[in-house]
Design a protein that fits this description.
single chain; 351 residues; alpha/beta; Rossmann fold; Dihydrodipicolinate Reductase, domain 2; 2 domains; 6-stranded parallel beta sheet; 16 strands; globular; binds nicotinamide-adenine-dinucleotide
């Protein structure tokens, strides 16, 4: 795999995510997209052509056709979520390095199988959760770590995707337990989208208690208007002296002080400190950082920015919230492999 020519990439699933990934590959000299795969031939061919690829071997309708190619080093996998684990496992087994989109898999069992194959075959498994790489959540993490907030009081997340859970894990670490309820248990897509509105409580290390409200409603009312922009995802982290509310992108963030206006100078100073952190980090386009880092990890045998283990953590929290809502019981982490929800996060869910 130490060839001097750029690493060969095949993109599986030629939808919206493939379009996003394709924006950034031309900026990576050490990688070249060789082909696109989609069950729908026209989508695979159109995506290939849009990226300057024509002719035989530039698009396929079956990922297995690309597995056998010795010039393919990397499978960048982003089909409809339930199809992802099988494709990732087959590619890893074939000795390809694999980058998967979120959600990593549909169950913890699948996550562990993917991680196990990557280890056994000596290849790299990377995960896309690009939103945690944006400047604002990284600044928020620095604020939490700085001690400027005083005693940490609580956290709150409003959001609709697994990115929300990943961002909380990024800031606070692996959760200890969770509890949850949902408004109606009518199931649609597992893991990627919760069935309806889920209200959860997650206990993170150091006594951090976080309430989570997440899901999709048929009537999807924007949860908040924030800094003149509309967002469906919002985080609030509250300490004794300082709170911060933020969305992932476009520098949507604000430092808050006490309701009685005490400490105003300290609030201003903290806002200035916050705004000065990580000046070189972009506030959007986490893929732009993540993709070259993955390519570099493959080239140099290093660690990608996010690994399969990182992807697994978000699936574990999701599984815990599902289980807690389904059983009306607190769920302690880690979820064990003999737990019925380990293999099927929808186990025992009524209706
Ligand atoms: N990180 C992000 O912000 C982000 C953004 C968009 C999508 N995604 C993720 O990317 C994945 C794809 O999302 P999308 O919006 O591109 O969906 P999409 O529906 O636009 O595209 C998915 C494509 O995969 C194809 N497909 C399904 N099964 C396949 C298989 N077995 N082999 C080959 N192709 C297959 C479908 O025909 C479809 O064209 C999802 O997991 C989604 O969560 C992540």
């Amino acid at each position: 795999m130490a060839r001097d020519i750029p690493l060969g990439v095949v993109i599986v699933g030629a939808g919206r995510a493939a379009e996003i990934h394709s924006w950034w590959y031309p900026e990576i000299p050490d990688a070249r997209v060789l082909a696109y795969v989609d069950l729908v031939e026209e989508k695979a061919r159109a995506r290939a052509e849009a990226n300057g690829l024509t002719g035989p071997g530039t698009y396929y309708t079956d990922y297995r056709q690309a597995l056998a190619r010795p010039d393919v080093d990397i499978f960048d996998v982003m089909p409809t979520p339930p199809a992802q684990p099988e494709i990732a496992m087959a590619a890893l087994e074939a000795g390809k390095h694999v980058l998967v989109e979120k959600p990593m898999a549909q169950s913890l069992a699948q996550c562990d199988k993917m991680i196990e194959i990557a280890r056994r075959r000596g290849v790299i498994l990377g995960q896309v959760h690009q939103n945690r790489l944006h400047r604002t959540p990284r600044r928020a993490k620095l604020l939490v770590q700085s001690g400027r907030m005083g005693q940490f009081v609580r956290a709150r997340a409003l959001g609709s995707t697994i990115h929300t859970l990943d961002t909380l894990i990024f800031i606070f670490g692996r959760p200890e337990w969770c509890a949850a309820d949902w408004s109606y248990p009518q199931l649609q897509e597992p893991v990627n989208r919760p069935p309806a509105w889920l209200n959860g409580v997650v206990r993170f290390p150091n006594g951090v208690s976080c309430s989570i409200e997440m899901g999709y409603d048929a009537v999807c009312v924007p949860q908040i208007y924030f800094n003149a922009g509309r967002t469906f995802v919002l985080f609030e982290l509250i300490g004794e002296r300082i709170g911060v509310s933020f969305a992932w992108v476009h520098n949507q963030s604000r430092i808050w002080g006490r309701w009685d206006g005490a400490d105003e100078a300290y609030v201003r100073e903290t806002q200035e400190w916050f705004d000065a952190q990580l000046p070189d980090v972009a506030d959007t386009n986490g893929h732009r950082v993540l993709l070259p880092a993955f390519i570099a990890a493959v080239r140099n045998g290093g660690r990608p920015l996010l690994t399969g283990e990182d992807g697994r953590q978000a699936i574990e929290l999701f599984t815990g919230l599902y289980k807690a809502a389904a059983t009306s019981q607190r769920v302690d982490f880690p979820i064990r492999s003999d737990d019925p929800f380990y293999s099927n996060p929808l186990a025992m869910i009524p209706g």
